[in-house]
């Protein structure tokens, strides 16, 4: 097993508008960016699978007017250490417990997209006492990213097919790298309804589809995909148990989702039924939960509409705010 550090593949990276920093967490070196007044409340941003910290770059600007914002590269993504065989919710969560201790150094709000949202949930349940103030779960795939979920569709009936393709054609640590072959395979392997749904989840302006891998994919270890598609990433962290142990207030945003009426295949983070079950479990744990439905929103609100994303968090986190109700 050979770990890859940022200097193992320095030609992958491009400059960004926020200065990047590195902290040694023991097993890995974690890359991150920070913005905002050091005296402002802390907010930790956790990217999705195949996303580096700079996916939050535009959202960090309005958020930094209200928070001391920390955005990280998780292990296996961006400039943080790539760790073959070591991609699980528990290891991701433990990394961030250390990061909060060493870098944030105080209680923090956490917000994560997609797989990052499940890691945010892990922190809301299992971080050290007092570390987490509240959690924003941005279009997170609860139950739907597990191989054997307690309710609803599994990863095999949803995004697992995409993750399998990434790993098959790109390989662990980009050992294959057949991007063109993967593009050719997509219409043969993916159901038409899934391809159409993915276009709505990940909207791209006309004419901007790159000929080769986009920058975020270059900075992503496709072994992540294998870990989630095989179930090894979530095997030791049952979602129902995790959510049942949440200890802080929660905001859930739920974006585009569709279920094929013929196959039951989900395109999206989770179904409405799974989202309802998540809310029930948080409430049963004794914590307030706010649910906001954005059925026309792409998967990553913080990229599609960074201003709305920032305003949503700011309003929810405001000390004097009224309780945010459900519009879904």
From TrEMBL:
Keywords: Hydrolase
SUPFAM superfamilies found in the cross-reference section: alpha/beta-Hydrolases (SSF53474)
GO molecular function: hydrolase activity
Domain AB hydrolase-1 residues, every copy: 44-311
Superkingdom per UniProt: Bacteria
Matching PANTHER family: ALPHA/BETA-HYDROLASES SUPERFAMILY PROTEIN, ALPHA_BETA-HYDROLASES SUPERFAMILY PROTEIN
The name this protein goes by in its record: Alpha/beta hydrolase
